[in-house]
Amino acid sequence: MGKEIKITAGGKIECNQKDGVIGVVIKYNDKNCVLTAYHILRVGNCALDDIVRLNGFTGRVVEIIWDYDLAVIEINAPESEINFSEIGKPEIGPAYSLNDKKQIPCNIMTVGKTFHYLSFPFSSLPLPGDSGSPIIREGKVVGILASIFYNNATAIAVSIERFRSNSKNK
Predict the structure, then answer these.
(1) Are 26 and 163 in contact (CB under 8 A)?
(2) 69: how many CB neighbours lie within 10 A of its CB?
(3) Are the CB atoms for 41 and 19 separated by under 8 Å?
(4) Residues 112, 93, 6, 82, CA torsion sign
(5) Low-confidence ranges of the chain (pLDDT < 70)
(6) What whole-number distance in Å separates Cα of residue 129 and Cα of residue 169?
(7) Could you tell me the pTM of the whole model?
(8) Using CA atoms, how far apart are residues 21 and 115, in angstroms rounded to an integer?
(9) Which of 24, 29, 28, 27 is nearest to 7 (CA)?
(10) Angle at 67 between CA 61 and CA 73, to 5 degrees
(11) Domain boundaries for CATH 2.40.10.10 within the chain
């Protein structure tokens, strides 16, 4: 049985004892980084330059992309412990969110340069704290869960297509 990679999309982030989810793992400005929803880290008073835990390793918040509500975290771990994400081209159709091995099925309803709109079954909605989860379609990350609307079982995912040139799948 192979060794489990520690830092992967859907894995755990912790900052100031507040848990979050790794949205995507990429090379960003030639550094190994993860992206996640910043508002989840902000709940734990996590800010620029703060140290975070990534499944047993450390990282540091190096940038906040305010227009996308994304935190960029530089990873301090050997590459053998990192599973870089493949970023896919978003398309309308079935997908799922992933949070610590828990998959929640959804459908991508619309695709945009900034955001994608999702629908979830009422019986299986993401929970508060699931923001930052990767949205995966056909095995590739196509977005990061940003906001959930419980009244109609829909959500918004931040498009990460602009980071596609930094992923393994260009």
Answers:
(1) yes
(2) 20
(3) no
(4) negative
(5) 1-5, 165-170
(6) 28
(7) 0.91
(8) 18
(9) 24
(10) 15
(11) 93-166
In tens, the pLDDT along 6-38 reads 899 999 999 988 889 999 999 999 999 999 999
Q: Please give the DSSP secondary-structure letter assigned to residue 72.
A: E
CATH of domain 93-166: 2.40.10.10
Taking the CA atoms of residue 35, residue 89, residue 10 and residue 148 in that order, the dihedral angle to the nearest 10 degrees is 80
Residue 91 CA from chain centroid, whole number = 18
User: 95-109 pLDDT, tens per residue?
Assistant: 999 998 799 999 999
In the prediction, which pLDDT does 169 show?
42
Q: Which two tokens stand for residue 88?
A: 């896919």
The matching CATH number, chosen from 2.40.10, 2.40.240, 2.30.110, 3.90.920, for 12-81 is 2.40.10
